[in-house]
Fold this sequence. Notes:
40% of the residues lie in helices and 27% in strands. The protein is α+β, with helices and mostly antiparallel strands. Residues 1-29 and 535-562 have low confidence and may be disordered.
Amino acid sequence: MKKITKLGIIATAFVCVVGIGTHTQTMAAEEATIENGVCIGNVNVGGMTENQAISAIEEYVDGLMDTTFTLKGETGSMQMTAEDMGVTADADTAVQEAMAVGHAGSLINRYKTLQDLKKKKLVLDMHLSVNKQATAQKIYENADDLAVGAIDNGLKRVNGKFEFVKGKEGVEVDVVNSVYAINDFLAQGWDGSNNEIDLVTKTVEPRGDEKELAEITDLIGSYTTNFGSSSAGRAKNVITGVSKVDGTIIYPGEEFDLAKTVSPFTQENGYELAGAYQNGTVVESFGGGICQVATTLYNAVIRAELEITMRFNHSMLVHYVEPSMDAAIAGNYKDLKFKNNLDAPVYIEGYCSGGVIHFYVYGKETRPSNREISFESETVSKTDPKVQFTMDSSRAAGSVAVTQSGQSGCIAQLWKIVKVDGKQQSRDLFNKSNYQATPKMITIGTKDATSESLSALKAAIATGDEAKVRSAAAGLKTNAAQKAQEQKEDEKKEDTDKKEDTDKNDTDKKEDSSKKDENSKKEDSKTDDTKKQDTKKQDTKKDTTPAKDTSTKKTQPSKESE
């Protein structure tokens, strides 16, 4: 009975599988669909055709682009969206895997798979991945903020001797392995519920062991410049800049970037406003004076014969070194860079004392003691400064003010001279520099100037002759003075005329008043005569009128007529 049962079950299963196979063939004749219960990642593709499933996955991935991932480093984290990382899905591969579910393998396996799908969904990998180059670039840009920088072993000078200073390990982001970690995170069934990813980090050992740094024993280059006449702001900038270079160790093959070391030029970083060159003029700028730091360091470095990889001269001549011996820093286009081309590290000491900048370069001296180097400045050509004139209507007419002193320009070059036992062995051109002339700027006041004098001034300016311009300015001043005097006299005359008119008006008023008084008196006299005549008439009338009996009547007021 058991054997029959088993055979019956197998036979039944076989029939079912055959039936499934027949069903599959029938479906293939139409359009195949993915079995119900199959998901690709978070997308339910059951019952979909191949094209429908691909479209559904692509739509899902498009909706992921705004998803933000938090990438955690040692000291902080950064955020990147799926779009930033260039997240994509291999939809074709994922859909082919889904189409094969229940349709591939042995009949028994197909049957078993279909039965399992009735009980539980089958989730397949969507094959998500990132654009490795774009992701790596973004992480690299933020790596410094996510790391703990190593503190290199160093040196400090105490009483003229070097003392070893032990550094400290650091931790930094392993960019390459972090990209693969992000890719694996997405590929291993990410469902969107957790968007935090730990970046891969690595330990960074401090550079320079005690033995290596012990090779720094000799002074191989030095230079000084004077900044004693600088303003308080400029002096502070010089001292601040030198302090940021002091103690620098440069290892063999390493390049030093001065602008990166001393910047940013802000008040928060210890700098103040001071004079700086800009477009041929002197302007106030934070960090003004830092170029003298660059110049002094440049001269110390070339005497140590380190390799200069970037150097620019100033646009105009400076007062603290000879032409072609300067080095300028400006924005992100002028910088001083040099490389340690020696076999041992070098140490830079810098300090300010008594208005003097001191830079010393220490290393391991390998040059012969009988070899001597020096540098010589040569002016090839010279350009005289021009004079620029400006008219200012807010200043007194004819006033002359020199708002900027002129300075000559030149083309200069620097020669490197090598002597052995006092005899010149070589004389090589080291650099060539072009300095523009600084114009002398003169401002002439033109307030209340006449059109004639202005025309004369403009004509003088057109000649470019300072003497003629000053002469025209003097005429401008004279004309203005004459005009002012005439105006004063006119005002005085006007005041006199006004006074005369006032006096005349007063006299006329008195005459009119006198006439009015006389007329008034005449009228009053006439009135009195008339009154007298009327009184006489009344008296006469009273005399000719019969008397009335008033003994029994009250007395009534008198009336002129009844």
